[in-house]
Amino acid sequence: MIRKIVNIDQEKCDGCGLCVPSCAEGAIKIVNGKAQIAADNLCDGLGACLGECPQDAITIIERDADEFDEVAVEKHLQAQGAPAHGHAHAHGHGHGHGHGHGGGCPGSRVQSFAPAPAAPAQPAGAVQSQLAQWPVQLHLVPVTAPYFKGAELLITADCVPFAYANYHQDFLAGKAVVVGCPKLDDNNAYLQKLTELFRVSGITGITVLRMEVPCCGGIVMAARQALAASGMEIPFREVTISIRGEIIER
Questions:
Q1: pLDDT in tens, 103-154
Q2: How far is CA 7 from CA 27, 38, 69, in A?
Q3: CB 77 within 8 A of CB 50
Q4: What are the start-end ranges of the E strands in the chain?
Q5: At residue 86, does pLDDT exceed 60?
Q6: Contacts 24+ apart (CB under 8 A), 111-117
Q7: How far is CA 47 from CA 19, 103, 139, 147, 177, in A?
Q8: Mind spelling out the 3-state secondary structure of 43-55?
């Protein structure tokens, strides 16, 4: 069947092994100094390992591959001495309603939690949007758009505005913005687009706003590598948001 699956570029891989523990299914192993997929049916194609590779050797591709097999994953993990982790829940096959189900990609693990208490109602009118441009998707913005010239660029992982309540006031105000998801899109395409954007747009600063989940590190990696490839010297800042909407790193 044709499906999404992790691809590891053997030319880029240096065998560091950072991707191995990020794969909850144990689908990645080091063979002869290189990371490889142990078996196609062990890889769910969700890409929790994407943000862990310093060489940008890991991508998600579509190809003919055996169907992902949760039972095979459980047997594989047990053979390695790891306990069964209830992977089915993480892929939406379970029926529980707890605070989080074990296993699977950390970025896709189902969790339920109560929102923070609402602040007292403010007497002022409706909150004003701080968006000053269109489009915002990284794939769609032209690198020579006039709103980039002389502006600070906010690169936003697309889950962030949902998690961080004051996104418009605390981060977006006064900035140009591009939005993307390295897990659902081609991170190599992001790298190429950002490289050109940094080189020609005339931006004056870069803030990357990401979620805490491992796969979100891919957008930071693409931005850092693009900045190096562009040859530009632009101030760079990374901010991490927790799934509970808290700033956990500046």
A1: 445 555 666 666 666 666 656 667 789 999 999 999 999 999 999 999 999 9
A2: 12, 12, 18
A3: no
A4: 2-8, 28-31, 34-37, 58-64, 152-157, 176-180, 205-211, 236-241, 247-249
A5: no
A6: 111/243, 113/244, 116/244, 116/245
A7: 10, 14, 20, 33, 25
A8: CCCCCCCHHHCCC
